[in-house]
Description:
Chain A is α/β, with parallel strands linked by helices and 658 residues long. In chain A, the strands form 12 sheets. In chain A, strands 10-7-6-18-29 form a 5-stranded parallel sheet. In chain A, strands 20-27-21-22-23 form a 5-stranded parallel sheet. Chain A has a 4-stranded parallel sheet with strand order 2-1-3-4, sandwiched between helices. By secondary structure, chain B is an alpha/beta fold. In chain B, the strands form 2 sheets. A 4-stranded parallel sheet of chain B has the order 2-1-3-4. Helices cover 46% and strands 9% of the residues of chain B.
Amino acid sequence: MSNKIGVFVCHCGINIASTVNIKDLVDYAKKLDGVVVSKDYKYMCSDVGANLIKDSIKKNKLDGVVIACCSPRMHEHTFRGVVEAGGINAFNLEIANIREQCSWAHEDKNRATEKAIALVRGAVAKAKLLEPLETSKIKVTPAALVIGGGIAGIQSALDLAEEGHKVYLVERSPTIGGRMAQLDKTFPTLDCSGCILTPKMMEVANHPNIELLTYSEVTGVEGSIGNFTIKVNKKARYVDLDKCTGCGDCTEACRLKARITSEFDEGLGKRSAVYIPFPQAVPLKFTIDTNTCLMLTRGKCGTGPLCVEVCEAGAIDFKQKDEEVELKVGAIVVATGYDVLDPSAMYEYGYARSDDVITTLGMERLINSSGPTNGEILKPSNGEKPKSITYILCVGSRDESECNWCCRIGCMSALKHVYLLKEKLGDDIEINVCYTDIRSFGKGYEEFYRKIRGMKTNFFRGRPSEVRDAGDHMSIDIFDTTTNKLFEIKTDLVVLVPALVPRADSNEFARILRISQSADGFLLEAHPKLRPMDTFTGGIFITGCCQGPKDIQDSVAQASGAAARAANILSKKELESEPLISCVDEDLCSGCSTCIAICPYNAIELDTEKDGKSHAKINEALCMGCGACVVSCPSGAMQQRGFKDKQIKPMIEETIKK
Amino acid sequence: MKEGLKMKYALYPGCVMPTEQYAYEMSIREVMPKLDVELVDLKGFSCCGEPIKSVNQMLTLTLSARNLAIAEKEGLDIFAPCPMCHLALSECKRILDTDTAMNERVNKFLEDEGLKYSGVSDIVSTIDLIHDKIGIEKIKKLVKKPLKDLKVATHNGCHMIRPSEIGRPDDSENPQKMDNILEAIGAKALDYPEKLDCCGGLLTANLPESALTKTGQKLKGVQDQGFDAFIDTCPWCHRQYDSKQTKAGETVAAKLDVPVLYLTQILGLSFGISKDKLGLDLNLSPVEKLAIVGGK
């Protein structure tokens, strides 16, 4: 029980003061039972404000504090420190949110003041009943998990490993490298994508602190910040990683050679059933495709599998099974990347109808010298060289019927292609670019755009209505909004620049990790400006395109940032635990186990006494203080510290009192 | 739809069908009863309002709402064979069902006649009535003279599929329902590049030459690609393609010779209904070229 409460009202500049009458509020608080001091200041979160609180605590021997200010999400942490510095327990603090829940939401000054008064009255009632709480220490598991082996995941893993932390890098495809490995050159500097990526891939493979798990998927996450237990399914590759030398004899011998559509080549090339996605794959180990291999789908392959016959190392093993491994880590970095919108859904653009309508990633594979055409630009329909190529930007992006957002890379990747195609096919190749706006916002991007505008290229500002197959060519109607004219483009090859979308399984994945998604389906950061790599779940960080579309530069920068955030945790031996967790009144608990079933963190177990009576027991290291058990408990035995019924109920009564 | 159970709709004729495009109405009145659809004629229907929308939207809404209210009073859903009417009525329904203030204003006007719009009546067009409500299976059962791989080009017209956000009978970019219906009676409905092109009809008032050019371009494409027939469901489009075919051909320097039929006409033929009852002698395009019409 606290008897000497101090009330401190913040103006928040004019954020609160313009809508709430501060003087009335301070005067009212002064008269409340138990309040010995009531003060206001323009910015309570400033040094002066903090000192005002500290001094008042000491001078008036306060044992409880109410601060009427912004949301506790903003400054509760700051003010706990201030209260503690004043000499009382940090949890004898109650915040009355009179900004987000009052001044920002209302216009009528009188009624807003009335509401602020009610909120402060309730907060004082609760502050009188608060109990001092102690934080305990949790040991940190000194290892990190990075999910996703694209450029973002690679960068995070390397940064963490360089800082001396053990890193598990889990990648679900057979190789790391991600989307960047599919690219030929990068904008705006035209660096060879492979040349700058593969050294980093090799570094990952050889780093003593990194354990690489490719062709593996995270299937379960338990525990919390500092101590996660991860379940990883290592899918059967049917190739012994220790024996495979990467020679490639198996892929040459495979009966299905050049008959399986290659995902890596965006459907434009073919591979065998035993394959590596690209020559610089890391690890350079072959994988057998479960869905197409004759042995795995039908149980027999001619007179016997040829891959087994030719493999001198004896690495092929059809008896391999999926293997589940468990990892213990202290922090997680999620870098799972993006999917590309399937343009078949937008029937008007002809992707579903014509082979000569491809996507930007498909064009990257055509340009790339290790791609399906060895770098020659050929029409997929007949293998002829195109005389005219047309780019359609914003396919599904900035479009209310598909994706509202901008893909942030489409304009620049198309401009880059213009340059590369002119280089490969000569200046006479006709290139048309149908754009909505050219967004060349990054460093050196605008300069690159100017350079391309100076090359022989037709820019149309507008969205084509339809791509028609006119037999020997494609026909596109476009209304150009800069000239107010309708044009018909006759072209040989159409390249769509589709929207970037969240991974198809991102909902399921977010559920496994217990992290949030924004309305568009991408993973949600804790604060768009100030905590862009954090999630609302402690110890889990996000980076790269899983958080939202971005280019390589931004992905790499964010990846280093996420690694630094994760290192904040890993560099400590111990973390302070959250004291606002559940507790059990053992006398009231009947051991019904309702809470055990409902707890999302597996933090409750049943404890049986010698006399046979059992009751719930909280594992304080695992409890996140979500409160689900409190609500579900039929007898009221479960209580959340800092939010106990006996604290909350008087608060409500006081708040709604007339 | 259970066997033997009849569907009942108020037939909303609109203006073009009863004043000029009689064949559409004749074929509808022949075909629908065969498909167990009872058509009810109600007194007092007025214009749907669509033609004056650009001048007076309030009046358009009120006219549409008035028609819907008349059907509501009889407890009937509305069948509007003209896609333009169907659009006007559907748009009105959408606005009045979501905008309370507009709903009140319009209902105030309707009070004078003792009518009230409450939004309970459904609105169907020829395509969704046949494809979604009646169903392909029923069509298949009724076929007496299958079309034996007749190559047909379908034309939906703009109002049938756009604007997509208010919900139209078929997809705005890849409409397939009419094609499915025609496949069910044995025809071969093939995609063609000009499939979604406008008939040009709405340009007639101010740019008559351009209107005919649009018509001609599309029909020429159809003719050049070797289609046997051109099928539509919109009386406005039909007027362009059927009645004005020769003139349209002149604008693209082509002698056009494409049989143009209403979907309900070709359905009727495959059901064994005589060509007189389906109004085929009113078609101005060379429909007699088709074996099923010529009776050869």
